[in-house]
Backbone:
């Protein structure tokens, strides 16, 4: 039976201490020091670490310092190595010819019967196609991918079209990631504002829906497009966005939708990145700028939309947002527009909540609600309307939001309630409040109009 190494060094240590004897005239403290020294020595030998530093040789290097600004050669080397790496990754992707061959193979191995109009394939045939498709396709032909696409087929098959679309989507994501990474100057997986501006500027000629844009408008278009990415994906205003976040959101899909030459007018109007949308936003900015100095004063901004935003709210906008001598530039205006046009979104609610939270407490109390609603009451008087009681409105707001603390409304409460857009409209915009107050009448009118339309048809 093999001896226990731990027992051996314990026995060795015991004999060594016994051999020293109790009558050698040493103090207890000296004996303990020797005991500790011997224990450390034999324990280290037992662990195989005669040299205390030898273990570090087995730890892989995990940190590589980035080159400093003055280390030009190292920076150039890093850029070139990244370019070579991205080129290699690009070559690993399926090209158009390989995708076409994959489709032919899938179609050849379909298994009857078809479900509706969709051709289906069994797991056995799926694996056969994987063997013939080549090494680039290997990662798609796995049990995990098959199970992910398996739904309710009684024969345990998957749709060929769904699988092919899955492959196409993955290839597109990798291509786009590589394309974005080429603009990642720092090489750390994120894009700064200038990086994304360069990416979109060079993308414009590839988008047929932007063919009609004047080149003089390119800089304003790029600014308009980039602001949407940064407003929603950089809530902490760090000045950079992860490439992973850009790929995960739908904004890039909306932008690349402009490749479709037959994109409908409705789709263009609802797409922030379309030419009509960008021209609409910039045109509104120019119309508000009455003195034509390229900036908006508070008085000029007060005519935004229906012109019913309260002066108290606009005061907060100019207190909190970046201005130049008390006037707002186009970039700051874009953030303002994105917040007011997307009030259901958490990023937009965060923007408005910061303006409503005057004392920066992280919540809205009755005092804050009253402060903003008084401005709504004053506007109602000006327009000859009977002011509504704040107590009633306050109770309705708390009923809608149902905050965790019955006396405080946090940003998270607003987001969780799903009523954040309604609450903020009530507090900052007379038209928004009027729409809320008359919601039942408006619903009735809509129903009557719909019924009348049905009768006409």
Residues:
């Amino acid at each position: 039976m093999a001896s226990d190494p731990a027992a051996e060094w314990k026995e060795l240590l015991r004999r060594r201490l016994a051999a020293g004897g109790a009558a050698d005239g040493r103090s207890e403290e000296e004996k303990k020091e020797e005991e500790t020294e011997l224990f450390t020595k034999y324990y280290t030998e037992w662990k195989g670490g005669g040299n205390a530093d030898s273990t570090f040789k087995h730890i892989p290097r995990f940190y590589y310092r980035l080159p400093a600004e003055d280390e030009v050669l190292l920076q150039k080397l890093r850029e070139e190595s990244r370019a070579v790496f991205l080129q290699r990754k690009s070559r690993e992707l399926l090209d158009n010819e390989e995708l076409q061959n994959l489709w032919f193979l899938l179609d050849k191995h379909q298994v009857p019967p078809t479900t509706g109009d969709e051709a289906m394939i069994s797991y056995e045939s799926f694996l056969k196609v994987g063997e013939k498709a080549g090494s680039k396709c290997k990662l798609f032909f796995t049990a995990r991918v098959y199970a992910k696409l398996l739904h309710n087929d009684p024969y345990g098959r998957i749709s060929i079209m769904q699988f092919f679309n899955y492959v196409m989507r993955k290839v597109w994501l990798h291509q786009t990631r590589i394309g974005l990474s080429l603009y990642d100057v720092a090489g750390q997986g994120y894009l700064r504002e200038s990086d994304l501006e360069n990416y979109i500027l060079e993308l414009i000629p590839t988008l047929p829906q932007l063919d009609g844009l004047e080149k003089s408008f390119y800089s304003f278009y790029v600014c308009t497009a980039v602001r949407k990415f940064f407003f929603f994906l950089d809530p902490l205003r760090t000045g950079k966005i992860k490439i992973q976040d850009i790929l995960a959101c739908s904004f890039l899909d909306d932008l690349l939708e402009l490749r479709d030459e037959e994109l409908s007018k409705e789709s263009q109007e609802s797409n922030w990145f379309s030419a009509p949308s960008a021209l609409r936003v910039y045109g509104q900015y120019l119309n508000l700028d009455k003195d034509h100095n390229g900036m908006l004063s508070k008085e000029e901004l007060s005519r935004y939309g229906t012109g019913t935003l309260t002066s108290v709210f606009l005061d907060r906008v100019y207190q909190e947002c970046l201005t130049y001598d008390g006037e707002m530039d186009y970039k700051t205006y874009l953030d303002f527009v994105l917040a007011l046009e997307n009030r259901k979104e958490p990023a937009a609610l965060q923007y408005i909540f910061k303006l409503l939270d005057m004392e920066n407490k992280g919540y809205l109390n009755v005092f804050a609600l009253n402060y903003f609603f008084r401005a709504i009451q004053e506007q109602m008087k000006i327009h000859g309307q009977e002011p509504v009681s704040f107590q009633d409105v306050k109770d309705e707001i708390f009923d809608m939001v149902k905050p965790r603390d019955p006396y405080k409304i946090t940003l998270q409460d607003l987001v969780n309630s799903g009523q954040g857009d309604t609450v903020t409209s009530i507090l900052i915009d007379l038209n928004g409040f009027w729409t809320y107050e008359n919601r039942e009448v408006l619903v009735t009118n809509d129903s009557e109009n719909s019924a009348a339309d049905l009768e006409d048809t």
The beta strands are 120-121, 158-159, 190-192, 240-242. The chain has a mean pLDDT of 88. The radius of gyration is 34 Å. The first strand starts at residue 120 and ends at 121.
